[in-house]
Specification:
Layout lengths: L2 E6 L8 E5 L1 H6 L5 E6 L3 E11 L9 E2 L2 E2 L8 H13 L4 H8 L7 E8 L12 H12 L2 E3 H8 L5 H9 L3 E8 L5 E8 L6 H11 L4 H17 L3 E2 H7 L4 H10 L2 E8 L17 H16 L2 E6 L5 H14 L3 E5 L3 H15 L3 E4 L5 H12 L7 E4 L11 E7 L17 H11 L3 E6 L4 H8 L4 E5 L10 E6 H6 L3 E2 L2 E2 H12 L3 E5 L8 E4 L16 E3 L4 E3 L6 E3 L12 E4 L3 H11 L5 E4 L9 H10 L5 E4 L12 E6 L3 H4 L6 H13 L10 E6 L5 H7 L3 H15 L6 E9 L2 H19 L3 E5 L5 E2 L2 E10 L5 H17 L7 E6 L3
Parallel strand pairs: 2-5, 13-18, 13-19, 14-16, 14-17, 15-16, 17-18, 20-32, 23-30, 23-31, 29-30, 31-32
Antiparallel strand pairs: 1-2, 1-4, 3-4, 3-6, 7-8, 7-9, 10-11, 10-12, 21-22, 24-28, 25-26, 26-27, 33-36, 33-37, 34-36, 35-36
């Protein structure tokens, strides 16, 4: 009887592959276990068992698996179902979902190892120069990896050289698999058994160690620590307590006085107290909580529309308490890692080490440990707090999913595939567990609010701030008028400066919001008008003053700031526009006695970058914080009284059908950072067009009016949520190929979807990293089958890629591009 398994490989191929196994392996293997399998001529991959069966493949002969890597499944059955949904809905392969979901330490990779053939004699003269260098290197080292050869030869493509050496039988090549995850082991010591009796101990202290007072002190310290803590003693703790060195500990181990041993431990640990009880809810919160509970009786998904600082987190805490008492796990999604810093502390004060955190700034090893804790339903992973990738974890009994700030665009993954939306993916995950989903936001996305209005979701509202603090007073400042009257100092209006002076004098803090990083987006020559451009992208370079650099924000290209114009050699270079760096510099000149800090992508690159800035602001070390949209996302600063929006217009005038909705959300959210405790906050929005409808709606905090107006536009122009949308992007370094390919693709789509195809069009930035881009939009009316639409697009896509001239053009399918 023959046995086979279907294996998912972490590569972008449509189907899983069948491998042969023995009967014993068939009885042992279960879906979700990892196996290493050969694929192609020499590659070895980590695959995931999808199913065990007895049906041989028809087209190819099944290869044997290499080895079994797990004793129990690493991925659950519900998870595999969820991955399958993601692959189908977002038009990608399950292999791509697997690569995105599994921590990289779980995906063992093979490395090509080259060693010298010692069986034959080689004549040096038969080898070319580069071949001889490799041969010579193998005399000094028994084996080399591909990366080593690249370094030795200073070449990227070393495969032709390896091929020639193989033909001449100079070398052997094999694949070596290496395990990436190493558990963290902590070193402990104890007194050896030989000295544990009282007489042996007396003899040790009074005779053996009399001439080694430092060693004697170490043994005495070991006793006092053991007596105090009644816990195993760490080597590091013993060294610091006895004020000694590791050499003395080693000497005691060598003498057989101490015995060392290791205990595996988690890298991420919580040491604080979990003694806080959740806060008493006010009447408005009680009503909202009851509304949510009632809504959950009828609906699986509820939208909580609560204004900024209304205490939504406290409602989440009450719902989490209920789930934990029933023995369920809770997934708490956040749009930005910056938010986890503050929230981890708050949740850990309530729930202690039941809170696990999962996001991309964690190391590979830390991610593995969180994965294992969730998989084994450990007490350390009852509440999973994370960014979008945490929806892919192996939950066991999920009871509730909370999506905080559900309107955020950072929930959508853009590159690489799977291009999933974490909010929608979390809703599907909850439905697989028959769990409830709560979406929370002060400025819900039009899609979610529309679903609530249609009765698809439940709706609960919270319209009063906690402690009855008034909503901030929002004032629009006409900077066109201020420029005319010469009342601007740099980019600060006299009104903003006056408010900042009063706020700082009263001992409060100020936030300044400018949604552009860098010093200045454009550097221009006053003589000839030339502006330095990125050689790889169709954008001008942004000037970063702190490094005196010109940088491209699309591909990362940078060069030193030019002293003279590249074209006419004029020294009159002027910077146009302004970013966070320039605002920071001007604020320092205007307020030299106060601490000014900046929070943007450049200042938060490290693992603890966010934490340092947020902690400094909370502890009052920063008086004025300048930042980009990172500041808008639900952060709770108790002492911020004033928020200044430096320029509202560059958000409003963006070529995207969502520009007005996003502008409203950004400004309403950043306004919400002001006056969160006792006194009413103040928000000043500088703009050239104070009569713009969106700005008027922000100033009166009128979400409903914004929703009605934007929905009218969406109805008229057939955009989401009225119509669904799939965006198709074609990419290639050859302009002509992209043009011709996009025209062919759009024409094929039009034969099926008629007028519901827009484009092909070049986007505002038509070249990124030397690749030309062209977009096509397919709109899907409500009554049109989404499944059949996707099948038709995949058919056209396969036909497109089967044409020889178009094969090199990369096609990106992006479903629900919002």
């Amino acid at each position: 009887m023959n046995y086979f398994i279907n294996v998912i490989l972490p590569i972008p191929l449509e189907q899983s592959f069948t491998y042969a196994i023995t009967q014993a392996e068939a009885e042992f293997l279960k879906p979700g276990m990892r196996v290493s399998v050969p694929f192609g001529k020499r590659k070895i991959y980590t695959g995931l068992v999808e199913s065990v069966h007895q049906v041989a493949p028809l087209v190819y002969e099944a290869k044997q698996i290499h080895q079994i890597l797990d004793e129990t499944p690493l991925v659950t059955a519900i998870q595999l179902k969820h991955w399958q949904w993601i692959a189908t809905y977002y038009m990608c392969t399950i292999g791509e979902v697997m690569r995105a979901a599994l921590p990289s330490a779980f995906i063992l990779e093979s490395e090509t190892v080259i060693s010298r053939n010692t069986d034959i004699k080689i004549n040096d003269e038969d080898l070319k120069d580069d071949e001889f260098i490799v041969y010579e290197a193998l005399h000094h080292q028994s084996s080399l990896k591909i990366q080593d050869l690249m370094a030795i030869l200073d070449k990227k493509n070393v495969l032709p050289i390896i091929k020639r050496l193989l033909e001449k039988e100079v070398i052997h090549v094999q694949e070596e698999i290496y395990e990436k995850y190493k558990p963290k082991l902590v070193r402990y010591v104890k007194l050896s058994n030989a000295h544990s009796s009282e007489e042996a101990l007396q003899d040790l202290l009074n005779n053996t160690l009399t001439r080694a007072p430092k060693q004697r002190d170490v043994v005495m310290t070991l006793f006092s620590i053991s007596a105090k803590t009644k816990q195993p003693v760490k080597v590091s703790e013993l060294i610091s307590e006895s004020n000694t060195s590791s050499a003395i500990i080693k000497a005691l181990i060598d003498k057989g006085v101490l015995e060392e041993y290791h205990i595996q431990t988690d890298r991420v640990q919580y040491d604080g107290e979990d003694d806080s009880t959740s806060k008493q809810l006010n009447n408005y919160q009680e009503t909202a909580l009851n509304n949510i509970i009632q809504s959950f009786e009828k609906q699986n998904i509820t939208l909580l529309h609560g204004v900024t600082s209304s205490g939504k987190t406290e409602l989440y805490v009450k719902l989490i308490e209920t789930q934990l008492s029933q023995g369920n796990q809770v997934l708490y999604l956040l749009p930005e890692i910056a938010l986890t810093t503050q929230l981890v502390e708050r949740l850990q004060n309530y729930f202690g080490e039941k809170v696990a955190v999962f996001h991309s700034k964690y190391s590979s090893h830390e991610r593995v440990e969180v994965w294992n804790n969730v998989l084994h339903n450990s007490s350390k992973a009852q509440i999973i707090l994370g960014a979008r990738s945490s929806v892919l974890l192996p939950f066991q009994n999920l009871g509730l999913v909370i999506v905080d700030e559900e309107h955020e665009s950072s929930y959508k993954q853009f590159d690489p595939a799977p291009r999933y939306h974490a909010r929608d993916t979390a809703i599907v995950l909850a439905s697989l567990f028959k769990a409830k989903t709560l979406l929370g936001s002060a400025t819900p996305s039009l899609e979610s609010y529309y679903n609530a209005q249609q009765g698809k979701y439940g709706l609960a509202t919270l319209k009063h701030r906690y402690n009855n603090v008034l909503m901030p007073d929002i004032e629009l400042i006409d900077i066109k008028d201020k420029h005319k009257r010469k009342r601007m100092t740099g980019h600060f209006s006299d009104r903003l400066i006056l408010e900042m002076q009063e706020t700082l004098k009263a001992g409060h803090q100020v936030i300044l919001f400018q949604n552009r990083r860098g010093f200045s987006p454009i550097v221009e020559c006053n003589t000839c008008g030339h502006s330095p451009q990125c050689p790889n992208c169709d954008v001008s370079l942004t000037y970063h003053q702190y490094k005196n650099q010109l940088r491209c924000h699309y591909c990362g290209y940078n060069s030193a700031m030019h002293k003279t114009c590249e074209v006419c050699k004029s020294v009159e270079l002027d910077s146009k526009g302004f970013g966070t760096e320039q605002v920071e510099q001007e604020a320092k000149l205007l307020f030299p006695d106060h601490n000014v800090a900046r929070m943007d992508l450049d200042t938060t690159r490290g693992k603890y970058g966010y934490e340092k800035i947020i902690t400094a602001l909370e502890q009052g070390e920063i008086d004025i914080l300048v930042g980009t949209q990172m500041l808008t996302k639900g952060l709770d600063f108790r002492n911020v009284k004033l928020v200044g929006v430096m320029n509202a217009d560059n958000m409003l005038n963006f070529p995207d059908f969502r520009a007005h909705e996003r502008s409203y959300q950004l400004m309403a959210q950043v306004s919400g950072r002001a006056g969160r405790t006792k006194e009413r906050g103040k928000v000043l929005i500088q703009t050239y067009n104070p009569f713009h409808r969106i700005l008027q709606q922000v100033s009166t905090n009128d979400y409903e009016q914004m929703y009605v107006e934007q929905m009218d536009d969406r109805h008229t122009f057939k955009y989401p949520p009225i119509y669904r949308m799939i965006k198709i992007t074609l990419k290639h370094k050859n302009y002509q190929k992209v043009n011709v390919g996009a025209d062919w693709y759009a024409k094929s789509l039009r034969t099926v979807f008629k007028t519901h195809v827009l484009g092909p069009e070049f986007p505002p930035v038509a070249r990124i990293r030397n690749q030309y881009l062209k977009h096509i939009l397919v709109k899907i009316p409500q009554k049109q089958s989404l499944t059949k639409t996707k099948e038709a697009i995949i058919k056209i896509n396969n036909s497109f890629l089967s044409i020889k001239d178009f094969r090199a053009v990369r096609v990106i399918l992006n479903v629900d591009n919002y």
